[in-house]
Amino acid sequence: MHDDLIARAKAWLTEDPDTDTRAELAELIDAKDVAELAERFSGTLQFGTAGLRGELGAGPMRMNRTVVIRAAAGIAAYLKKNGHTDGVVVIGYDARHKSAAFAEDTAAVMTGAGLRAAVLPRPLPTPVLAFAIRHLGAIAGVEVTASHNPPRDNGYKVYLGDGSQIVSPADAEIAAEIDAVASLTTVPRPTTGWETLDDAVLDAYLARTDAVLAPGSPRTARTVYTAMHGVGKETLLAAFARAGFPQPVLVAEQADPDPDFPTVAFPNPEEPGAMDLAFAKARETDPDLIIANDPDADRLAVAVKDAGDWRMLRGDEVGTLLATHLVARGARGTFAESIVSSSLLGRIAEKANLPYEETLTGFKWIARVEGLRYGYEEALGYCVDPDGVRDKDGITAALLMTELASTLKAENRTLLDLLDDIAVEHGLHATDQLSVRVEDLSVIAAAMRRLREQPPTRLAGLPITRSEDLTQGTDTLPPTDGLRYTLDGARVVVRPSGTEPKLKCYLEVVVPVAAHADLPAARAKATDLLATIKRDLSTAAGI
User: Which of 93, 378, 533, 534 is the most exposed place for a label (fewest CB within 10 A)?
Assistant: First the structure.
């Protein structure tokens, strides 16, 4: 086995076009580091509905140029097999390590396969790529990004010509084409022949952002903004200037792209400590709200002043506020969300006599809802202009949220005031999450197995009235690896993360509220229930 492992590593080394990963792998071979080599050659990084995502490094279980070239060849073969023998593939990339090289490799492979490749002019937000696919009439798009993953990671997200991310069976069919690539020597990779786009596509995206806002709406809210060391700053500032909002005050330490993300443990606004510098800047400047993007700017975080200091709004709170604002503006069309998001959106849509749909987790599903007008997911993803960007978009969502804050400011009200009104109208929908990050993925599998074999019958003293294993699918949902428990006044969904080594448990409790005066007691009850459900669920899952 040892000799076979070394032989496989040497064979990989002969094909690797990257001097960095060649040197890394040669050092492991010379050192006969069997444990590390075994980990890197234990299989191949799997291509799925999230595309590819993993740690940078040499070998088939890492993100590197060899893996990317094979993936691009598989995508090209899939497109041609499905009748796209000509057409443009648009390629975007973020500012992470190796992203520009991965984008260039993808362009070379597409060109060598007889397709036309067009690369965005520089690192830009993922929503610009999603927009460009539809705007240019492309047959597909690729975004090189690991979104909010740690600095050591990179990834590869694939869209088809409708501007939506791939779903089954396209993922499996592309994976099969990738597996069929016997050697990089079979993949033509010319050094020229693709187009590097100019700023016209970005200008078109920015012009499209005008459609998000209501003509003549207030534009007075002052913001603090952090790009979280990502690529959002330039595009967001341009969009805010076009809209006539006050220029956001930047968190200077996080304003410019930096693939090492030096000020945060994880470049995700949801992670503890990630927003600390933004809170500090807000204490200095006293804005109306804080807005934040993740590194590829497809997500939006919002923070507000509450009881004298700043706190993050939950993704469900932001999703609810945006939905309420759109309803107030007379939006028509289907409102949609994933199964892990708050059920409050359904109540808002029902009251407004709007169609409502629930999908599996991920914007690859939300974006495919027929007649979609607005979609959101609790993990800070919001689609507020599906005709322009059929994916989550942290830039246009930031515009819409700042318009709402401006509208409320003109009424001498705040986002928290509106959340109170929503709770009184529809009941207090309080959400929380039990999220466990692991080094060993078998921990997640063991927890899911335990819950299936010994399912809980009560949580926080509340009987579970319905228990669903989502691997079986439902009347409205295709199969997925997840569990859903319905309780009297509560709901729990448990699933492995599709993009990170995490087990994620989504909790919601609903407490009726008769009047504003009842809100403090309702919030106290909800907080207690959520904490107890979290404790009981953790025990049941063995985590």
Answer: 534
